[in-house]
Amino acid sequence: MAGLRSLYHESLYDTALVPSYWEESYGARQDHGTMLEGDAECDVAIIGGGYTGLSAALHLARDFGIDVAVLESGPMGWGASGRNGGFNCLPASKMTTNQMIRKYGLDDTKAFWRAQLDGVDLVEELAQSEGFEIDRQGDGNLEVAHRPGMMAELQEAADQMTRLFGIETRTFSAGAFAEIGYRSTEQFGALHMKAGYALNPLKLALGLAGAAERHGVRLHPHSTVTGWRKDGAWHLLETATGCLRAKRVLMATNGFTREGMHKSFDDRLLPVQSNIITTRALSPEELAAHNWQVEEPICNTRNMLFYFRMLKDRRLLFGARGDWTGRPEDGRKMKAWMIKRLGEVFPHWRDVEISHYWRGLVCMSQKLAPSLGRDEADPSLFYSYGYHANGVNTAPWSGRAMARLIAGQEGADAAIPAVMKGTASRFPFAGLRIWYLRAAASWYRWQDDRQLWPRN
Ligand SMILES: Cc1cc2nc3c(=O)[nH]c(=O)nc-3n(C[C@H](O)[C@H](O)[C@H](O)COP(=O)(O)OP(=O)(O)OC[C@H]3O[C@@H](n4cnc5c(N)ncnc54)[C@H](O)[C@@H]3O)c2cc1C
């Protein structure tokens, strides 16, 4: 393999533990598995130990008795899965519902949303059946209008969700939401959808790792795949300390996929940074200053959205897009920008101390929806990626869908909605991906402040 390349600075791929609120509040982590050493063999090898890889591994071993090994660059759950916002929300697509219906038709759009709702439920089912905590918080998800004109869109979204997908919704005027939700300079009404909730993402990742291990999966942390060859029907996955032979491989590296890993994936993925800050715990007086009442996770209606939630210990978690380089100094500028924006959205919390800052990579693609399937050129290679920053429900669901497909379960292929099936197309002039992203971000920022026409 001619060396791994990436769109961002190397520091984003440094597998030291991330200084996130989740890591710090988790305490001492149990090390799941051991580094791959020497030669080993398995039926299915999974590259990537996040929700996708761990859920696929768990289901393959538990439901089909298949011999599985997982290779992960860092400790298990090191990627986006162990450090996200913990919004168990939907949908995993950057298409509006109308755009999706125009492209795929109503039935396939409904099938996609059904899968999304199944994903929301699957997370809790797994936590219960496998006996681990996820610290569920709130009931449903909130979307908040960041400008007065956005309520019409939210109302249409609410009507569609109820009419087409059977989701219970409620909308609130700015005044009504100020009474039962919160007050802010960017609160002009809200939509509540009774689907999803907030959770602790690291507990979910490590819960899945522990369950997979108990069902016989071999977990190999600190085992980056740096070489990938075929020897007849076998895949040979090389790490710095060993080589794993496998009959089938699932690529589950999502936003942390490096170019040069495998030619089937080069130029198709668009990793994008997402950043999070958390405040120190807010006092009852500080919470009252914005009349904060809600436990549900919240996204606002900006294209370049802010996402936030009040953590159980009353810290505000506040997330936003990242910078375009991944260089540590640009990350520091991003952190300063986020602190400033937090203060503008919640002026009473302007000077509150920030306890944590961290960042990570989500995965977008030209498809604007997830990509699940079997490689066309090599039927022993499977993939699942591109959850468009919405992987808490989608990645565990996709991992299970891939386990069923790999195991050859009847109906497994048909159970993957058309919207999610198949790989994304390659970007033209793929070396310019970050520039495409920058151009899109400028356009979205401009639109966020004006909203001259509706998004659908
Ligand atoms: C800051 C942030 C906030 C987010 N907030 C939310 C949210 O609130 N709600 C939501 O639904 N989604 C959120 N997301 C997205 C969500 O976390 C992801 O979609 C989801 O975790 C993807 O899971 P995954 O297992 O596919 O990928 P990941 O968890 O990223 O795992 C991929 C793994 O592959 C490993 N890897 C890569 N290359 C190699 C290699 N060569 N060899 C071995 N291992 C390799 C990486 O180390 C990594 O651990 C957020 C993401 C970020 C970064």
TrEMBL record:
Could you say which residues form the signal peptide?
none
User: InterPro entries, from UniProt?
Assistant: FAD-dep_OxRdtase (IPR006076), FAD/NAD-bd_sf (IPR036188)
- What are the record keywords, sorted? Oxidoreductase
Any Pfam family matching the protein: DAO
One GO cellular component term, please give it. Answer: cytoplasm
> What highest taxon heads this organism's lineage?
Bacteria
- Gene Ontology molecular function terms on file: oxidoreductase activity
Question: Which residues does the UniProt record annotate as the domain FAD dependent oxidoreductase?
Answer: 43-405
Q: What is this protein called?
A: Glycine/D-amino acid oxidase-like deaminating enzyme
What organism is the protein native to?
Answer: Aestuariispira insulae
